[in-house]
Design brief:
mainly alpha, globular
Length: 193
């Protein structure tokens, strides 16, 4: 659990830009380096977080839960998963709250600092690139869930193209598109077995 706590503490302290900026790093580290979750599990967590109320950052709690479940040590799987989720939540939010409490009195003075404003503008631009990385990483793992050699999941690709077209040209609200894509995937997967 020390590795889990250290990793998510580091994520909380050194990442900026919100959940979309954090998730590419967490997804790649949790899947490829630590093996806490699989790429499909990470996709499912993001999909669940996107379609339910609440902050998207709670995907990190999901990763902590699955990491504990997969590596229970001397605990039961449920006990380890609960501990993993609780630790992940704690170390994700406590540093942020401390930054707010300590830094709040200085925010107004810092806002007028030209150098700091320029640095924050650069960070904002970098966050856009990180969000693009997230879209590409999740898109890749959704369309090619078992890698390039195993072939494309045509159903996922079709739903993605239709959803993009509906959003871009159809002037349909995002909530309806997410709901429609979820229902289409669920229904068509049910029909195909």
């Amino acid at each position: 659990y020390a590795q889990l706590g250290f990793f998510f503490s580091k994520v909380a302290v050194v990442t900026f830009g919100g959940a979309y900026a954090v998730l590419p790093y967490v997804g790649q580290q949790a899947v490829e380096n630590h093996g806490w979750v699989t790429a499909p599990q990470m996709l499912h967590g993001l999909a669940l977080a996107e379609t339910t109320p609440g902050p998207l950052i709670l995907v990190l709690q999901y990763v902590g839960f699955l990491a504990g479940w997969a590596n229970p040590g001397g605990l039961t799987s449920l006990g380890a998963a609960t501990l993993g989720a609780a630790m992940t939540t704690w170390v994700t939010f406590v540093p942020t709250f401390l930054f707010i409490l300590v830094g709040a009195p200085y925010v107004e003075r810092l806002r007028d600092n030209v150098r700091l404003s320029a640095a924050l503008a650069a960070v904002t631009a970098a966050v856009v690139g990180v969000i693009l990385n997230l879209a590409l990483w999740f898109g890749w793992h959704a369309v090619w869930p078992n890698g390039w050699a195993a072939g494309m999941d045509g159903l996922v690709a079709t739903i993605g193209v239709v959803a993009f077209a509906a959003l871009h040209w159809g002037r349909i609200g995002l909530g309806w598109i997410v709901l429609g894509a979820a229902l289409a995937g669920w229904g068509l997967r049910g029909l195909s077995g």
